[in-house]
Write a structure and sequence with these properties.
It is a single chain. The protein contains 10 helices and 35 strands. With 742 residues, it is mainly beta. Among the domains are: 104 residues, Immunoglobulin-like (Sandwich), CATH 2.60.40; 82 residues, Type 1 dockerin domain, CATH 1.10.1330. The strands form 9 sheets. A 10-stranded mixed beta sheet has the order 10-11-12-14-13-19-20-23-24-26, with helices on both faces. Helix 8 packs antiparallel against helix 10.
């Protein structure tokens, strides 16, 4: 237990004398039980086993095994990727007082699900003796609301680029039942992974954070990488553009430690999890899981909990929940794809570089975490019909829905046709993944170039021999000019998770050439005639300030990028043909099967260029086919609306347009200021229309057409100011600077 005599002062806490070989001490703080012991300096075991019992026992066999830790976990090895000499720092019952492990000590953390008193024992694997030296009694509480589980700051530092960071650790609640979670903390591992520390780092900008809510971006490393390589300001990751000027970057770690035929290795969970039956401690020859095993989303749960904690009151951060994005590379790109589909409502946008959609690495060795592709094990995720989603759909596709939400966040995929990693190589499988993603109509952008897999190689030709020569391997989206559209700053400056957007798909840059252009070929990097770099939808853009999202109307200005200061981001063509799906609509959700009308207007002249009607599909999704959009500054306004009954239904809040309902479809042609009856001139009849409106009579002119002031959209009231406004127009005064005059 945490004895009163040991916490009289912080000094006495930090200088507890060893009473026996292992000197086990325990206490309760911050929602968890903390167990510390001295490691045997002579015979270090492969694991220490932790037991619990409601009464004193002298034989571990009479107690309940609640955890086993490998050395890398009991000493917090992952922290040393950032600081080789650091040890774990644990909270204590005294506010603001922490216990720093000695280099000769280990730690285990137990997450209670009820208040109780227990004896905890730490025993070398293979031994059973329990004495006062390796046992301690702890009384602990349980209050998920007022005393929730938290992450704990370990130390501060700065990257090579000067970006300050804080490293955090959160300890896993591992359970046999993956659904037996506390209200405040998920089950983040199976029973063999209980009490394991997981690291994440939060990096701040070079200047102080804003006083108002600011954005955050998750950065996910690859399967053979680690969190410390994905911090802003790291030169070897410059091509990712992870730096933020006004927000924080959250960099978690994915991998877990396990034994593999006599050695402890570092294994990727693919940012998802592993089968609930995984035994990380066996030294037997590794095999694939049983076909009935289920892959549990332990890692994904931890990532979402980190987000919850950062957004919560105990983190000390003030992150805007509407501006959280995610960027990943390799396995981290696969993780970005799957995580953004598991909780799409939490993210505003995502970028996935070199995603590992081939799955070839599974064929080489047994995969005790996820099984072979041919097994395609079930996961704990369920589809809309309550059926399990399989691991292939989680980790090997980009289009499969993994949540109940209809829409994904906007996602941009970048892949390399010269990728030298088998799991991410340009193959027919990879090509098919992107075809499926495009066909889903989710509106993701898909870009490719001649990059290799390694991030630091994207802007330099390695000159290494390849299967087909010549073999340039420079990423054209990176060198000689680097796109801004993949950067962390661009994502959070452009997107919000509470705002709708146009999803471009089936984008064709050359309608005269058969097939969608550009064509990246069949998935063969040596194929003749393919476009070695290009994009589907990556040049398409929209004006976020132009979005109108109402129950009866959706509107947005769309265009191809043409005026960007970053030359690589400007479209090389004047126009494209594209389908557009209305994504993340907040208010405009017409009933399934109902008809909506649409039109595409010239922004400058309001001339209608295309128009039509479509039926809302499943879950009220509206898709507009065959739009022709042009390169900026030639912009188009897409307007979609439910059928109108009268002119009032067509009010666009613009006194410079006439609001007209004709054949159940709205039109808003440009007009002169004061031309209330829209006959091309401003005369006595317009004055009479406004006077009628002032009297409450709208038989000739509809209310929105005589509501002339204030600019730009009127105030919904016809009064003396509207009469004066039409008199201004009659006398040639263009009060609201309408494009049509007078």
């Amino acid at each position: 237990m945490w004895r009163a005599g040991l916490i009289a002062t912080a000094v006495s806490l930090l200088t507890v004398a060893s009473v026996a070989q292992t000197n086990v001490r325990g206490w309760y703080a911050k929602g968890q039980v903390w167990i510390v012991w001295e490691v045997d300096p002579l015979v270090e075991p492969i694991t220490y086993n932790i037991y619990a019992s409601p009464q004193i026992e002298t034989d571990a066999a009479q107690m309940t095994l609640i955890g086993r830790l490998l050395k890398q976990d009991w000493e917090g090895q992952r922290l040393r990727n950032l600081d080789a000499g650091v040890t774990l720092k644990l909270p204590t019952p005294m506010a603001g007082v922490f216990y720093q492990l000695l280099p000769t000590e280990g730690a285990f953390v137990f997450t209670p699900h009820s208040a109780a008193t227990r004896y905890f024992a730490v025993v070398k694997n293979g031994e059973t003796l329990v004495t006062n030296a390796n046992r301690d009694q702890v009384t602990f509480g349980y209050d998920p609301v007022n005393d929730p589980v938290q992450a704990h700051a370990q130390f501060d530092g700065a990257t090579e680029g000067g970006y300050p960071y804080t490293a955090y650790v959160v300890w896993t609640d591992g359970r046999l039942d993956p659904d037996n979670a506390r209200p405040d903390f998920p089950v983040g591992g199976n029973e063999h992974r209980n009490g394991v520390p997981h690291v994440f780092v939060i990096t701040r900008p070079l200047t102080p954070l804003p006083s108002t809510p600011y954005p955050a971006v998750f950065a996910l490393h690859g399967g053979e990488g680690a969190y410390h390589n994905f911090l802003p300001g790291r030169p070897e990751r410059a091509n990712l553009d992870l730096e933020l000027a006004d927000g924080v970057v959250i960099t978690p770690n994915d991998n877990l430690y396990l034994r593999w035929e006599g050695q402890t290795i570092n294994q990727s969970t693919r940012w998802f999890g592993y089968v609930s039956t995984l035994d990380p401690f066996t030294d037997a020859v590794r095999t694939d899981p049983a076909p009935t095993d289920v892959v549990i989303s332990y890692t994904a749960r931890r990532i979402e909990w980190i987000l919850d904690w950062v957004l919560g009151p105990n983190s000390g951060y003030n992150v805007d929940p509407a501006r959280v994005a995610m960027i990943g590379h390799s396995a981290g790109a696969g993780g970005t794809s799957s995580l953004s589909r598991q909780f799409p409502e939490r993210l505003c946008a995502a970028v996935a570089h070199c995603p590992v959609f081939n799955g070839l690495e599974d064929v080489i060795l047994p995969n005790p975490l996820h099984g072979q592709p041919s097994q395609n094990l079930a996961t704990n995720l369920m589809d809309a019909d309550g059926q399990p989603i399989d691991i292939q759909d989680v980790s090997r596709t980009a289009h499969t829905r993994l949540a109940t939400q209809r829409d994904f966040c906007f996602t941009h995929y970048y892949t390399g046709i010269r990728d030298d990693n088998a799991a991410a190589a340009w193959t027919p499988v990879q090509r098919a993944r992107f075809d499926d993603l495009n066909a889903s109509g989710m509106g993701a952008a898909i870009s490719w170039d001649e990059r290799e897999h390694g991030i630091e190689k994207w802007d330099a030709d390695s000159m290494a021999p390849g299967p087909c020569m010549p073999w340039p391997d420079i990423g054209q989206w990176i060198s000689p000019v680097r796109t801004e559209r993949h950067s962390a700053q661009y994502l959070i400056d452009t997107h919000r998770n509470d705002r709708s957007y146009p999803g471009f798909f089936n984008v064709d840059e050359d309608s005269l050439t058969p097939g969608r252009q550009p064509d990246p070929g069949p998935g063969d990097p040596c194929a003749a005639g393919m476009a070695v770099w290009g994009t589907w939808g990556g040049y398409c853009d929209w004006d976020t300030a132009s979005i109108v999202d109402q129950s009866d109307r959706w509107e947005c200005t769309i265009f191809l990028r043409g005026l960007s200061a970053v030359s690589i981001d400007n479209a090389p063509v004047e126009s494209v043909t594209t389908d557009v799906s209305l994504r993340r609509t907040q208010q405009f959700n017409p009933s399934e099967g109902s008809t909506v009308t649409w039109r595409l207007e010239d922004v400058d002249t309001n001339a209608i260029l295309q128009s039509g009607a479509v039926d809302a599909g499943d879950e009220s999704l509206v898709i507009i086919p065959g739009l022709i959009i042009r390169r900026d500054p030639d912009r188009r306004r897409l307007i979609v609306s439910t059928p109108c009954v009268d002119h009032d239904d067509c009010n666009d809040d613009d006194v410079c347009t006439q609001d007209v309902c004709a054949t159940a479809s709205c039109d808003n042609p440009s007009r002169q200021f004061g031309d209330a009856n829209h006959d091309g001139s401003i005369d006595i009849f317009d004055i009479l229309c406004v006077l009628d409106g002032f009297a409450g009579v709208f038989s000739v002119c509809a209310l929105p057409n005589v509501d002339l002031t204030p600019c730009p959209g009127g105030d919904g009231i016809i009064d003396i100011f509207d009469i004066l406004a039409v008199l201004d127009g009659f006398s040639g005064v263009n009060t609201c600077n309408c494009p049509a005059g007078p």
